[in-house]
């Protein structure tokens, strides 16, 4: 598998984190600046995902993309928004990370 495709997928997932976190700041899309960040980051995220799936299997790419997005957003929710950081919650995040690594290794 192409390293460039994997790098593109990771950047796509980082943009997914950006838009997901900025949904909080967009305040129901009433904050224009944060709303613009959401829309642009969404477009970049999906656009880069579409590039990555030209090389990577779509099922693997989509699962890794959403997994990285979910983990990053959950961690930033803990850090930025005082969401709970319980042992069970962190264990679930670790399980997602294990799944992401497993999918990447077996792709």
UniProtKB/TrEMBL annotation:
Q: Magnesium as a keyword?
A: no
The UniProt entry, under Pfam families, shows: Multi_Drug_Res
Q: Which residues cross the membrane?
A: 30-49, 61-81, 87-106
Q: Which GO terms describe its molecular function?
A: transmembrane transporter activity
User: Matching Gene3D superfamilies, A to Z?
Assistant: 1.10.3730.20
Q: What is its main location?
A: membrane
Q: Where in the cell is it found?
A: Cell membrane
Q: A GO CC term? A: plasma membrane
What membrane topology was assigned to this protein in its record? Multi-pass membrane protein
What keywords would UniProt list here?
Cell membrane, Membrane, Transmembrane, Transmembrane helix, Transport
The leader peptide range reads none
PANTHER family xrefs: GUANIDINIUM EXPORTER, SMR FAMILY PROTON-DEPENDENT DRUG EFFLUX TRANSPORTER SUGE
Q: What is this protein called?
A: SugE protein
């Amino acid at each position: 598998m192409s390293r460039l495709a994997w790098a593109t997928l990771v950047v796509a997932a980082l943009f997914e984190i950006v838009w997901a976190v900025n949904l909080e700041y967009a305040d129901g899309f009433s904050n224009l600046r944060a709303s613009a960040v959401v829309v642009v980051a969404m477009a970049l995220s999906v656009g880069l995902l579409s590039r990555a799936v030209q090389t990577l299997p779509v099922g693997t790419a989509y699962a890794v993309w959403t997994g990285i997005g979910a983990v990053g957003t959950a961690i930033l929710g803990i850090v930025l928004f005082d969401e709970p950081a319980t042992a069970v919650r962190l264990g679930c995040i670790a399980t997602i990370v294990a799944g992401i690594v497993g999918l990447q290794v077996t792709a």
